[in-house]
Design a protein that fits this description.
Helices cover about 35% and strands about 25% of the residues. The protein has 19 helices and 26 strands. The chain binds 6-O-phosphono-alpha-D-glucopyranose (G6P).
Length: about 600
């Protein structure tokens, strides 16, 4: 977590850094800080503020800082409370070296003790502060050399931005297991955790790899690897604009992203559906297409919402490909003893492509020689670069912390992948054609659900004071129940549990009373009758029920207290439709309760630490 920004070049206006930082606020927002080198005063000025970036902005209005290079930082606390002292940039004893850091230094305690014994004075509780002190210890006039020596001592994950008033013409950056990229301008370089931060300044970027360090001056960029060999980097062109990452008239990114789903699903489908032959194709998988014919098992790994997409994918893949499929959360997978065999395809799903646990799980599989595939939204991200082959979502930037359009895009791609693998096996032409035909209708069906948003808002108003919620579903909609509960707790801080409806009698039904509403996902699919029985059981205990079912199923009004109708489609695609009312419901309750739904407390968009 945490967002970092750096700049070196001809411009002296620190608002460039502030603007970039605002776009990184989703990575953490409990405090923000900056440091800038002023050539006239030959010193580095620094300022920090607890709270959002806007607080730092206010404080910067009281001073007239300018210069280059500079660093900006937005924090998501890992070590030490939310205070100005703990906020980055951190400096050494002489206030010469200033550092911003995203990640965790695992061996900081022993380093700190040693440095303290040597007389270094520390001012924060952070792991990061050892870095400027180590650089101070090694500094002999050349910043990169001191940084290199410091790197020999620290262990952990880090993206670093470093400047020094004693070697002021440089910005040194390092990457190891935390995202970092360099934007290339004219006689200037920008550095950021994510391309959305700098896209308004430049669309040309270079992605650093783990173990790489770059030394930047306005005129040149020298990159070297862990063995100090020079590295030549390709320059990538960002293919989306700053407008894509802005709110576009909506009050929140979350609502904008919910409303964008017809388009993001269309983008996931574009060029990939072959309706005549009932197949799917992915350019990104062409290198492994033949190898996929012989796989016997699929293993899916992801975190959070992406993991729930993986759970839905498991139902799709098992039903249509006949291949056994498992889905695991990455933080568990990486610490188990994963069985990696040649006949298995390991699929990693991640919106950001930077989630630390997903990346670590991927690396573990690669170490053992497994075939790795990815479904990733952020192009050029770590998971995208490190998998053997992959599929991009093309969903555009997702800024709201709670994932919405990435989820439905992941489901769409999983359905396409099911087609690809299914048609290589027993899936019939007729079944393939049905799935392709239905997939092409999905964007329109989603649009129809979005048109009901005022009605969903009314239902949200009615239930906004509830303190607990149960979400139930079966088969394909069991993971959707988990996702619905996750959305509600993330955004509205209401306690919510997602359950497979069949498990209700094994515990959660004990909670049901007049104050404990349930959202029941019950499209008229192969488990519909079972769902109706579960709803009856809840009603018999006076629990309020909001049912989501298919249009034309008027009978549901007799059973449930409130009903939301969604259009019909085939069973495997129902989750894409069923989740839309749940996203809107969570959004409207969060807003009605007065919360900042784009930046829920304690959460961050991209979890780049364990
Ligand atoms: C965080 C986000 C979730 C997201 C999860 C996995 O928890 O708040 O919205 O689902 O990380 O992120 P990824 O980028 O790997 O999909």
């Amino acid at each position: 977590m945490c967002g970092i920004v750096g700049y070196i070049g001809k411009q002296k206006d620190i608002r460039i850094g502030l603007e970039a930082l605002r776009r990184l606020e989703y990575r953490g927002y409990d405090s923000a800080g900056m440091a800038v080198y002023n050539a006239d005063a030959k010193t580095i000025h620094s300022l920090k503020a607890v709270g959002r970036v806007v607080n730092l902005e206010q404080r910067l209005k009281e001073v007239s800082f300018e210069g280059s290079p500079f660093l900006f930082y937005t924090r998501w606390a890992t070590h030490g409370g939310v205070t100005e002292e703990n906020c980055h940039p951190h400096s050494d004893c002489k206030n010469s070296v200033w550092v911003v850091h995203n990640g965790i230094i695992e061996n900081y305690r022993e380093l700190k003790e040693k440095l303290q014994q040597e007389g270094h004075a520390f001012h924060s509780e952070t792991d990061t502060e050892v870095i400027p002190h180590l650089i101070e210890r090694f500094f002999e006039g050349n910043l990169e050399e001191a940084v290199r020596k410091m790197l020999g001592l620290i262990r952990g994950s880090f993206a670093l931005g470093i400047i020094s008033k004693d070697d002021p013409e440089k910005l040194v950056v390092v990457r190891n297991s935390a995202p970092l990229l360099i934007g290339v301008g004219e006689n200037e370089y920008l550095v950021a955790s994510d391309p959305s931060a700098i896209v308004s300044q430049t669309k040309k970027v270079m992605y650093l790899e783990d173990g790489e360090m770059a030394s930047l001056t306005p005129e040149r960029c020298l990159i070297e690897d862990i063995n100090h060999h020079a590295v030549r980097k390709a320059i990538h062109e960002i293919d989306w604009s700053v407008e894509d990452a802005q709110k576009g008239g909506y009050s929140h990114f979350m609502l904008k992203e919910i409303m964008e789903q017809p388009e993001s699903i269309t983008n996931a489908l574009r060029g990939r559906v072959l309706p005549d032959t009932g197949e799917a194709r992915f350019g990104g998988l062409s290198v492994v297409r033949e190898r996929l014919r012989s796989i016997k098992r699929i293993s899916i790994t992801a975190c959070g919402t992406a993991y729930y997409a993986g759970l839905v994918g498991r139902y799709m893949l098992e039903e249509y490909t006949g291949l056994p499929c498992e889905a695991d959360v990455a933080s568990e997978f990486r610490y188990r003893r994963p069985i990696v065999k040649d006949d298995t395809a390991f699929l990693f799903i991640s919106q950001s492509g930077e989630t630390a646990d997903t990346l670590a799980a991927l690396r573990e599989v690669k170490k053992k020689g497994g075939l790795t595939l990815g479904i990733i939204n952020v192009t050029g991200s770590s998971v995208a670069r490190e998998t053997d082959a992959g599929i991009y979502n093309h969903a555009g930037p997702e800024i709201g912390v709670a994932s919405t359009k990435a989820f439905t895009s992941q489901l769409t791609i999983l359905a396409l992948l099911t087609l690809l693998l299914g048609r290589q096996r027993e899936m019939s032409l007729a079944d393939g054609q049905v799935v392709t035909r239905e997939l092409q209708r999905i964007p329109d069906l989603v649009k129809q659900i979005l048109e009901q948003r005022e009605k969903i808002k009314e239902i949200a108003e009615k239930y906004k004071h509830a303190e607990n919620f149960l979400f139930i579903g079966r088969k394909y909609n069991y993971p959707v129940a988990l996702e619905g509960a996750l959305k509600l707790k993330e955004i509205s801080y209401i306690h919510a549990e997602g359950y497979g409806a069949g498990e209700m009698k094994h515990g959660p039904i004990a909670l049901i009373d007049e104050q404990f509403p349930t959202i029941a996902l019950c499209p008229q699919d192969s488990v519909y009758e079972k769902m109706v029985s579960n709803i009856q059981e809840i009603k018999a205990r006076k629990g309020p029920v909001i049912a989501i079912t298919n249009e034309g199923n008027g009978g549901m009004k007799e059973i449930a207290d409130d009903v939301i109708f969604v259009p019909r489609t085939i069973e495997m695609l129902n989750p894409i439709l069923m989740v839309i009312p749940l996203q809107l419901f969570a959004y409207f309750i969060g807003v009605a309760r007065g919360y900042d739904v784009d930046k829920p407390r304690n959460l961050a968009k991209s979890v780049t630490v364990e």
